[in-house]
């Protein structure tokens, strides 16, 4: 039976939200007291010091623990799909490569952190969001707009900081086990320990995922483990230790959804890749300190080691004879990062400085040292080896000033000194002002970011006889210049938040790739200039009469402003929009959570996007025509029920010794079996489900 294509309208969702807002309006005078900290969460990512979101000039979205519990994401990237200004692409079923673009920028312009420890691949390539276990985390912070002045390269368009679900001092120890099974012969097992003692807290998790997929050679397998420890030797000191390992294998079918999509291979080209796969092993170890020897001085050093071993292997098979491009091939690489960071914060009040209007001042001075190594061996018709190292030394500065508890001004700058390539200088300014009587906040930010070329951009070399590809060691950093302005309205003790933001970005020196090569003899060159602009509208009603409703609508316009006379390759063509960026999309969710029950309906609609058709590659052609990838509407459903809660069973139920909470869960993705491609030619899964049971001891 053919799968369906449909278009949802956001009108019913926004109408439901409007009705709830109207009902809430009757209770504005009775807004709950003491909930503002809960409903105005702290963000550490925006300034690297804790601040309420309502005082930050940048656009920041906090995904709290309740959003995980209400939406039951299969992996954490599943939750980020709902983020404001975020557009996610995934090349197939679970475990397939998933990337995120912030406000239409490049998908490698985002720095990804694991509670402050850098998680972005050391090779400088795209971060894959398909492999983040949800059980590691209590939430995330998404910072939109250039953040290179604080976070350096990779943060040209923003930062995503994944927050660990660490125990707190004095927290009762708990043990959690979960078992899930579902579509495509999927099985998951989770073991999680969390708790604390008088002077610390801890987290330890171990999980396994096995999924056979929909097609031949379409499986996904992952084993992930994490351990973290906080230790407070005194009220003025904190030590954090972190270790992480994540091993995953993703089989590489070449079905490209051919049996289940309108984008079929041409007649006669029905060969399938039956044995290719990619295997990745990520390991990280990190340590950080927070030292406050005086009221006004804080030193927060951090050191980490990260290594990624990645293999792509296409063993010999029948396809080698009929399709020479798909002949036996193997690529192995090891990426390593050593990083130390040394920020010092100086904190003063207006009284300290004898300035009555000043509420507080936080000055940050920092030095960062980062070494990245990349070793790669490629074996095909010819074999090549790369072995490269590069170093970055950085100085950064930031000043935060708060006046009258209402006006916050923030500015910063950074200098990145590279041993290879031109240095980068970046900066940022932001402001936020709160009108207390009306609960209205206006904000704005402007800045620039930089993205250092990846190792492959610089040094890649492959000679397969019929095709020779070369990197360009003379590439410059890609750059983004941005400004934004926004307004937020808080109602009902901040249970209601309405937001609107306008932004413009200019991306310069974008690196273009061409199979045919450029006049400089390489396949990579700084060619393109791109301009983007857009609008973000969002509304949220949090925990009102057992309902939580969230919705956001995004408009994005992109255009290639300069391709240097057609030299931008097929990705960057003057006057054309950027690939895989929709002009508009919206997401929304309605949650009902009385007592033991939690149910959430998640809606997402994405407009059509330009893309490229890579099927000519099967015939040996390197010309890939532009196509329009049709829009789609996706509906997900999450249901959970506590059979035992706080040790008490449902009426008529049976308590279990030691079990404090027993929950049954069901997550259904693509509930209406929508037929769509995130990426042209890679059919997204149809209706798929995951059911399970979770024990808390």
Question: What's the SSE blueprint?
Answer:
Layout: H1 11-25, H2 36-39, E1 42-43, E2 51-52, E3 59-63, H3 65-71, H4 76-80, E4 86-90, E5 98-102, E6 110-114, E7 117-118, E8 137-144, H5 148-151, E9 158-164, E10 174-182, E11 186-197, E12 200-211, E13 220-234, E14 237-251, E15 277-291, E16 297-299, E17 302-314, H6 319-322, E18 329-349, H7 350-353, E19 358-379, E20 383-403, E21 407-418, E22 424-435, E23 440-451, H8 455-459, E24 461-463, E25 468-470, E26 478-491, E27 496-513, E28 524-544, E29 547-562, E30 584-592, E31 597-606, E32 609-612, E33 626-629, E34 632-645, E35 648-649, E36 661-669, E37 677-679, E38 682-683, E39 688-696
Parallel strand pairs: 6-9
Antiparallel strand pairs: 1-2, 3-8, 4-5, 6-7, 8-9, 10-11, 10-39, 11-12, 12-13, 13-14, 14-15, 15-17, 16-18, 17-18, 18-19, 19-20, 20-21, 21-22, 22-23, 23-26, 24-25, 26-27, 27-28, 28-29, 29-30, 30-31, 31-34, 32-33, 34-35, 34-36, 36-39, 37-38
Structure overview:
The protein is mainly β and 697 residues long. The protein has a single domain (11-40, 173-696), classed as TonB-dependent receptor, beta-barrel domain (Maltoporin, Chain A, Beta Barrel). Helix content is 7%, strand content 54%. The strands form seven sheets. It has a 22-stranded antiparallel β-barrel. The radius of gyration is 25 Å and the shape is globular.
According to CATH, the homologous superfamily is TonB-dependent receptor, beta-barrel domain
Q: Biggest sheet: strands, sense, closure? A: 22 strands, antiparallel, barrel
Determine the number of helices (DSSP H or I, runs of at least 4 residues).
Answer: 8
Integer-rounded radius of gyration: 25 Å
Shape: globular
Roughly how many Å apart are the termini? 45 Å
CATH class: Mainly Beta
The low-confidence runs, each spanning 5 or more residues with pLDDT under 50, are 24-37, 255-265
What is the averaged pLDDT score? 89
Strand element count: 39
SSE class: mainly beta
Residues in β-strands, percent? over 45%
CATH architecture: Beta Barrel
- The level of helicity is under 10%
CATH topology: Maltoporin, Chain A
User: How many independent structural domains?
Assistant: 1
Membrane topology: Multi-pass membrane protein
Family: Belongs to the TonB-dependent receptor family.
Organism: Tectimicrobiota bacterium
Domain TonB-dependent receptor plug: 54-159
